[in-house]
Every structure is written in structure tokens, then in C-alpha cells.
Amino acid sequence: MTSLYDALQRARQGGYDIALPGERAARGPEPPRTPARAPGPVAIELTPLLAAVRPLLDGARGAIVQFVATAAGEGTSTIAREFALLAATTGHRRTLLIDGARGNRQTARYFDSDTARGLLDGNWIGFDEADLQRSVSGTSLSVMCLFGERSNNPADAVTLKALYDQLRGQFELIVVDCPAIERGEYPMLLPEEADGIFLVIRAETTRPAVIAHAKGLVEQAGGRFLGAVLNQRKNYIPGFLYRLL
């Protein structure tokens, strides 16, 4: 026992943070927190989107922004999560990212969020939805699923509207990663309740007629477009010349 005590004392004298039995180790100043998930290179291109959303954040309640594409594979989930990270880090906004998919919940899984339960599973009123949140370390971002993996319930409009209203009081910005319009599920996410919608378009693959049709469907549902995101765009001009244009 004496040798163990002496060893711990020598370790302490050497500057190591070691506690004796029955003691708590003294903690020094914590290093600055770095985001566990930092915005990627694409986030730089999304800065104008954050500027477009900023006027919506001046109100007393949080703003809801939806990202949707005409078809699957256009990169909606990537754009939504990078934008949410951008808002929660450089924008310093209390941001909630909602994975609105029923199938492949890649946004939730990217952040290691629980996909077993969702906000619309069962009677959400009365339980602490913090149990469903995945807080991203070093940021102001939280991530949740709208539907759990075993959920078969439709998105009831009354319940979803009440949920949106509750979340507006807890977050400054709510970003919804929506399923593609071609799947027919998007209108159930109430585009008319969103403060703004961004249409994600994969460059050089989506035909203009398809884009116009999708835009018309969203506007008929009462959605308000803030703009379009041209994803995977190729620059045919060398970068140093493109920056001079």
C-alpha cells in the first residue's frame, strides 16, 4: 500500500492529474471545444443561403426551413446537414436538424442519432423530446428523426403543426431534410408551415421541365421558395479565372 501511495505522489509531483482513492482528480482548464462534426468544404458555398435565411431569424419564434429535391440522389441530405452545421457553428444559432425520411435515415445516422424512435411516434405531448435529441458536441446543433424505424403512422397535419409550433419555441432555426417530391410524401410535411424552402437540384442531370413541375407543386401546396441549390456543379473555367469573373 505504501509503495502505491508513493507512486501516486510521484506522479502528482510530475504534473499528472491522478486521484488517490476516495479523492476526485482536480481538473485543469478545459481545452477549447472543437466540433465533433465540422462543416465540410461545401459549407462555404452555402453561406449565401444563410444570409437569405437570416431575416427570418429576427422574429420572436424560430424559423423552419425545408430542403427538398425533385428526385432521390440529388444530394438533399448532404446540403441540409452542411447548412445546419454552418448555422450552428459560424452562425451560432440554436439549430435543430430533422431527418424527415421514412426509409434511409442517412442524416440521422451521419450524426449517430437514435433512429428507433421519432418525434411523431406515439403521443409526443408530455414526454421530454430531449430523449430523442443527439446534440453535436462543440456546436449548437441537435439532430432528431421525425419518424422512428418502426413507425407506420402517417404524418397527421394537426399533430405535425403542433409539433412545429413547440419546436419553434425551443430553437432559433429548424432545418428539415425532406424526402424527394417524386416519392409523394413531401406534402405531408406541411410546406405551407415552413418559413422558406430551398429546392436542391443536381447540376446537368435534372431537366428544366421537371424542376418547373416540382416548383409548381410546392407552390400549390402553399410553400414559399427562398431559392435553389445547384448541387455538384462543375466549373469548366480554371478556379483562378472563375474568381476574377
Features:
disordered N terminus, single chain, 245 residues, disordered C terminus, 2 domains, 7-stranded mixed β-sheet, Rossmann fold, 8 helices, 16% strand, alpha/beta
Largest sheet: 7 strands, mixed
Q: Can you tell me the overall shape?
A: globular
Q: Uncertain spans, ≥5 residues at pLDDT below 50?
A: 1-5, 10-34, 123-127, 234-245
Task: Give the total of domains.
Answer: 2
CATH domain class of the largest domain? Alpha Beta
**What is the overall pLDDT average?**
77
Query: What is the name of the CATH topology of the largest domain?
Result: Rossmann fold
Which band does the percent of strand residues land in?
15-25%
> Mind telling me the CATH superfamily name of the largest domain?
P-loop containing nucleotide triphosphate hydrolases
Structural category: alpha/beta
Distance between the termini: 75 Å
* Oligomerization category of the chains in this entry: single chain
Number of H- or I-type helical stretches: 8
Calculate Rg over CA atoms.
Answer: 23 Å
How many beta-strand elements? Answer: 7
Percent helix among the residues? 25-40%
Q: What's the order of the H and E elements?
A: HHHEHEHEEHEEHEH
Lateral arrangement of strands in the main beta sheet: 3-4-2-5-1-6-7
